[in-house]
Amino acid sequence: MIRYSVTGRKGRKVAAFLGVTALSVALLAMRVMAKGTGTVTGTGVYVRKSAGTAAEKVTTVTTGDQLRVTGSKKDSTGKKWYKVTFTQNGTNYTGYIISNYVNYKKDAATPDHYTDTRKLFDYCFENFQALNISENDAGLAKDNGKNYGVLNNSEPYVKLDEDAYIIMPKGAQFSDASYKKTESAKGKKKVARLAYTYAGHEVGSVDIVKTGAKVKDNYYVNTDSGQKKNERVIRIDPAWLIVAGVVIVAAVVLLFLAKRAYDNFYVIRHQRKTKKNDKMRFREKKRKKYNRRKDRFF
Question: Distance from CA of residue 198 to its chain's centroid?
């Protein structure tokens, strides 16, 4: 068995990450059906090349026949099939038989199971490597430490999680892995998540997290223009610009109406005077007519 020596916080993280990966593989392997023996409980049961009633027939077995069960698989309808090996009339057969007609008995556990798990751990440590994403990524990581913003006077607002790794075969390069954005990362400081794949398998992921950098007060001030540090900068609220625009438009309208009234002053005065004279003539005419009627009665 290989001995592993790790030093420092980073070394312990890498070892722990590889260990968890190896353990995950081991647990995945443990979920595979254990080997055992099976006794056929039906007559004329077909053994087929693959799981499913549409698969090609290999041979038939009958009640009492002994089979070696090496695994299981479900067909497209969800029915369970056992993968079996057996000898019939001097010929060795391998195929699948539906579980309904097999009495399955799992083999007793042996110490070899633990030995195999240890070998699996050894294999993972010998043939795989953990690569830190933030240190190897050719995109965002290469710009770490640079200033950002319009005038390059701000710290980065996001970065890659420094504790994220991918597991790659030894000899493979980080650039051999590709990544794509997955579902939104959960957490207040997380912006997104990138999943890395290699040879069609996911090998790790990393969160893009906020750095907590703030926009500086002089974000819009060009420090290279010779402006003095103590010089006052006037900032105008856009709402005041709108109010000023409305006032200007109202003033223009009032000026237009005033000019129009001035240009038509004599016309308006003549119209009013004419209207007044018409009223006076009408009243005079009405008064004379009334006096004539009065004279008739008296």
Answer: 20
- Among 84, 82, 64, which Cα is nearest to 74's? 82
Instruction: Look at residue 13 and give its three-state secondary structure.
Output: helix
The position carrying tokens 């083999």 is 107
DSSP notation for 113-178: HHHHHHHHHHHHHHHEEEEEHHHH-SSGGGGTT--BSTTS-B--SEEE-TT-EEEEETT--GGG-E
Q: Is the dihedral of CA 45, 51, 54, 58 positive or negative?
A: negative
Closest by CA to 225, choosing from 233, 235, 237, is 233
Q: What is the pLDDT of residues 61-97, one digit of tens each?
A: 999 999 999 999 999 899 999 999 999 999 999 999 9
The answer to whether residues 50 and 96 touch, using CB atoms and an 8 Å cutoff, is yes
> Which of helix, strand or coil describes residue 38?
strand
Q: 152 near 168, Cβ under 8 Å?
A: no
**Which pLDDT score, from 0 to 100, does residue 8 have?**
54
| Mean pLDDT comparison of 30-39, 110-119, 208-217, 264-273, highest-scoring range | 264-273
Residue whose structure tokens are 């990966």: 21
- The size of the chain, in residues, is 298
The residues, ordered by sequence, that sit 6+ positions from 14 with a Cβ below 8 Å of its Cβ are: 6, 130, 165
Angle between the N-to-C axes of helices 238-263 and 265-297, in degrees from 0 to 180, rounded to the nearest 10 = 50
* Residue 209 contacts residue 189 (beta carbons within 8 Å): yes
In the block, which residue shows the tokens 């004419």? Answer: 274
End-to-end Cα separation, the chain, in angstroms: 150
* Closest CA relative to residue 208, chosen from 192, 229, 232: 192
This prediction's pTM = 0.39
Who has greater pLDDT, 226 or 74? 74
| Cβ-Cβ contacts under 8 Å for 79 (sequence gap 6 or more) | 51, 98, 99, 100
